[in-house]
Amino acid sequence: MREDEFLQELKKININISDEQINMLKIYKNYLQSQNELYNLTALISDEDIYLKHFYDSIVVSKYYNFNDIKSITDIGTGAGFPGVIIKIFFSNLKVYLVDSNGKKIKFLNELIKLLNLNQIVTINSRIEDLNIKTDAVIARAVGSISYLSELSYNVYQKDLILMRGRKEEISQNLLNYLNLKIIKQEEYLLPVSKDIRNIIVFNKKMHNVKYPRKYVLIKKQPL
Ligand code: SAM
To answer: Which residues of the chain have pLDDT under 50?
Structure first.
């Protein structure tokens, strides 16, 4: 997808973008391409892939979830900043935490944040299970399984958990019952151009169950 096609597709789904945001995305794309080898960031590195499979695929979530309803969000396994940095560019008032266990990716993100002059955005080089922050929501694209992520990050999200994935995955009733979660949105859609299948699931935590999360070894051994 070229930049002009990207802008047209945003229009189709009623996402407004300013000249400043268009320019920020250009800077992001160029920096990603120039630093990719050094930091080992992504296999999708052509202009077309970046606009479609990183930028569009990240911001499309705002069609399914209202980020104006929350104040803070943690992007777990953010990699080269997807979707966390894109969400920050479009929702500048949000406090965003970018988490990844890979130190190289965090280094790249620190440089990117300076380059884009973003504030209220924090990087954390950590594994999910070692995090001790709390935010209104957690988001993750293409990371782990649903049961693993929802329990491991249970103490982080106070309200909503937003998972972006490829094909649909079964969600067990145990997971919903034990973690007191309710599915508030579950949508399958196709990316424009490539027609790749995507799924978005939004969970809301009705009430925190103090018995969870269990110890890491147990979560691995007996997923909900
Ligand atoms: N979310 C990004 C995207 O959609 O482009 C990156 C997805 S990549 C497939 C998975 C990322 O999760 C990697 O950057 C990896 O380092 C990170 N990751 C994997 N396990 C993790 C864990 N337990 N804690 C934190 N990050 C993790």
So the answer is: none
